[in-house]
Amino acid sequence: MAKEAARNIGPVVLLGPPGAGKGTQSKKIVERYGIPQISTGDLLREHVRAGTDLGRQAKVVMDRGELVPDDLLYDLVADRLRQPDCRYGFILDGFPRTAAQAGWLDAFLDREVFEKKQEKCPPVVIRLDVDYNQLLQRLAGRRSCPTCERIYNIHLQPPRTDGLCDVDGTKLVIRDDDREEVVARRLSAYETQTRPVADYYHAQGRLVTINADRPVDEVTAAIFGVIDTHAAEHSDCEPSR
Ligand code: AP5
């Protein structure tokens, strides 16, 4: 599907368990709407690679498959959302992940986007639902390109040449936290800590759930439908800066 001219989409929140396809679908949304993907997992992994204080603290927790403490995330996310490329909207992939983070995000958007900038476009919150066994298969087979970050799956979405990225030929890698015992803990953290986030948005009538147990392109089409409807309903939105 072709990329659209930049227009105000506003915040898009993608919720879903590990392996639901948040990263895969975020890249499709970036391509079509020209708004940036803000993945807290990617931001944290950048800090780990750079060996910062935050990276060192986060790595210990991420390697265990647990959630990084909320207060380590807030400055990271706020700094990223204040960048000019978020002007027409952004995709939050993997944030919020606890009820406290959801409350923090609402307060941030009210304070820094809705009120100060007279922005009228509320976030659209999309939850990707996938069967548990399918999640296990997706995570066990995931490979990604360390250069362009394209995501593959050796069972479900293999690269054209075994082990190499289709785009730049880089050797594909396995994420540290995709080991079987860590995956189980990540899925359990989702159930206990992130499901309440969906409940939080559901209670406000803002949650749209999509069956993501389908081929990638079908899920993408469903997501675009939700975003287009939301953007049409808020066509009076002003760019936030
Ligand atoms: P993060 O990087 O956010 O990982 P995650 O949420 O566990 O999600 P994943 O990246 O594993 O999966 P995904 O939904 O993006 O699926 P993908 O598109 O890759 O977080 C990592 C860690 O960082 C956390 O455990 C935590 O410690 C920390 N962290 C991050 N954010 C935090 C926060 N806010 N608070 C606290 N801690 C935080 O797809 C998976 C596979 O499936 C791929 O192989 C793909 O090719 C395949 N696939 C995708 N869609 C389909 C489809 N429709 N059909 C077939 N295959 C598909």
Question: What report would you give on this structure?
Answer:
A hairpin with a 6-residue loop joins strand 5 and strand 6. The chain has a single domain (2-35, 88-239), classed as 3-Layer(aba) Sandwich (Rossmann fold). It has helices spanning 22-33, 40-50, 53-64, 70-81, 99-115, 132-141, 180-203, 216-233, and strands spanning 10-15, 37-39, 89-93, 124-129, 142-144, 151-153, 207-211. The mean pLDDT is 91. 48% of the residues lie in helices and 13% in strands. The strands form two sheets. Strands 2-3-1-4-7 form a five-stranded parallel β-sheet, sandwiched between helices. A two-stranded antiparallel sheet has the order 5-6. With 241 residues, the chain is of the alpha/beta class. BIS(adenosine)-5'-pentaphosphate is lined by residues 16, 18-24, 39-41, 44, 61-62, 65-68, 73, 94-95, 97, 101, 138, 141-142, 151-153, 156-157, 177, 186, 212, 215-216, 219.
Question: What's a concise summary of this model?
Answer:
The chain has one domain (2-35, 88-239): Rossmann fold (3-Layer(aba) Sandwich). Helices cover 48% and strands 13% of the residues. It contains 8 helices and 7 strands, in the order E-H-E-H-H-H-E-H-E-H-E-E-H-E-H.
